[in-house]
Amino acid sequence: MIFKRKEGPSKVRNLWHFDLARRVAGYAVSAILASLVYVVWLMVSITFGEGNHPSLIFGLGFASFFLFADGFALALLLMIVPWAVAVWVQFKTRLDSRIYFPTVGASLLFAFGCTTASISPKPLWMENQTFLEGAVIAAERQGIGLLLSGIAFGACYCWLERKIQARL
């Protein structure tokens, strides 16, 4: 066999690494936005909810503490693999990403958020509760915030994907 050598510089493009880096960056930015939405939701519900009305600074500190202590950050960490599967499914099926990603983001974050809130450590003065009771309490107390954060997560991911695809 005779091989001909191409003249001039050849560019080696490894699109798999670029694609992976783009998706990881999209996940990270979306997780930051979802965390911000969750903190704002908790801060507003603590500050303007029923009973005593603490200051906004107290509400922000309390919400920031519960971002990590009540399982939201752990939910985002546990959601990495299911989100990768969801992105793969969207890639294979070519579903409309404007509807698909916010819906999947909301459902995954709600499910993992209620799960991690149920298994997170509780103060000593709280009654012992089963896993299911804890998940139901988390859904009642944080359900709307988790759903809104999941929608923001999915919408941000979709927007970033579209912006990057348009530049390629």
Structural summary, described in words:
- The radius of gyration is 21 Å and the shape is globular.
- The longest helix is centred in the last third of the chain and has 37 residues, at 131-167.
- The chain is an all-alpha fold and 168 residues long.
- The chain has one domain.
- It has helices at 15-47, 56-69, 72-78, 80-93, 97-119, 131-167.
- The model has no long low-confidence stretch (mean pLDDT 85).
Summarize the helices and strands and which ones pair or pack.
Elements: H1 15-47, H2 56-69, H3 72-78, H4 80-93, H5 97-119, H6 131-167
Helix pairs in contact: 1-2, 1-6, 3-5, 4-5, 5-6
Helix/strand-derived category reads: mainly alpha
Question: Quick one: overall form?
Answer: globular
Distance between the termini: 37 Å
SSE succession? HHHHHH
Query: How is the main sheet built?
Result: none
Short note summarizing the structure:
The protein is mainly alpha-helical and 168 residues long. The protein has helices spanning 15-47, 56-69, 72-78, 80-93, 97-119, 131-167.
